[in-house]
């Protein structure tokens, strides 16, 4: 049962635990009011030539990126080179972002460039099958 | 398993990555939770902690540890040679709302960490997961010197469905965090099996 008191309290309260959907609707993507603090997010996109959308769709924070063995890093720009070196072992986009100290959105654009030119491959998202979920549960339990 | 993955790049099987989202109010212990079980120090990306938030989130019992989830922090657990679990803490502030969809999309499920002294802080997270139909559970994090609420009281205050699991948790203890993650995978499985049963 859903307690009416609790439900009302939940709807009425603010809190900082997450985005407020009603506010999100009022501010469509790309139409943010200017906030000086946003500069720290925008500036890194100089690395991507201002591009914020990756050419490759479906890259998530947990997507694993793996460099092809003989990727010619010499011809790559510095950040691309760093990514290829990092991804000698499969590395998640989040880890790449942290290692390069760039926002996730920037890392995603850079990785998508490397996917496009064939320097790296990414593991396709895995279907969350019941077998996979059971495997996760059993492995976590065994930790 | 993957059309995109070129098997000639490696002699080993391509690893699979899965993520679980750790959410809740600001300073509730998300970073502690992730750090208790991650094999790497929780990494931070997207933005550094601002000066204003120092002190606000300084409730972490680990001495000298002031990292927090202003933006996006995460940990990693290698479950076996080909299966990696990532834990992502959600950003605790409205200004990072645009990150939520990226973080949550494709997640196995979510843990909503709750501080009994500030129950309302986790309402936006619960609303988000309910709205996006993400399987989640609520983990009641007990800080030292905090009155131990009865779980039933918490449930009433939360106004969540009886079906949503509510579990006690100590984010500082690895075995406790492990128990929460197992409970979440059980919840995801139960939901999946119920969906299957509804189809047939």
From TrEMBL, chain A:
Q: Which InterPro entries match?
A: DUF742
Q: Name one Pfam family in it.
A: DUF742
- The organism sits in which domain of life? Bacteria
Write out the biased-composition intervals (Low complexity). 1-11
Renumbered to this chain, region (Disordered) spans 1-35
PANTHER family given in the database record: DUF742 DOMAIN-CONTAINING PROTEIN
User: What is the official name of this protein in its record?
Assistant: DUF742 domain-containing protein
Species of provenance: Kineosporia babensis
Automatic annotation (TrEMBL), chain B:
Q: By what name is this protein known?
A: ATP/GTP-binding protein
For this protein, the record's Gene3D superfamilies field holds: P-loop containing nucleotide triphosphate hydrolases (3.40.50.300)
| Matching Pfam families | ATP_bind_1
Classification via InterPro entries: Gliding_Motility_GTPase, Gpn, P-loop_NTPase
Task: Give this protein's Gene Ontology molecular function annotations.
Answer: GTP binding; hydrolase activity
Q: Does the keyword Nucleotide-binding apply?
A: yes
Tree of life domain = Bacteria
- The entry's keywords: GTP-binding, Hydrolase, Nucleotide-binding
Give the family this protein belongs to, as stated in its UniProt record.
Belongs to the GPN-loop GTPase family.
Matching entries from CDD domains are given as: Ras_like_GTPase
Signal peptide annotation:
none
Its ancestry begins with: Bacteria, Bacillati, Actinomycetota, Actinomycetes, Kineosporiales
Q: Which SUPFAM superfamilies match?
A: P-loop containing nucleoside triphosphate hydrolases
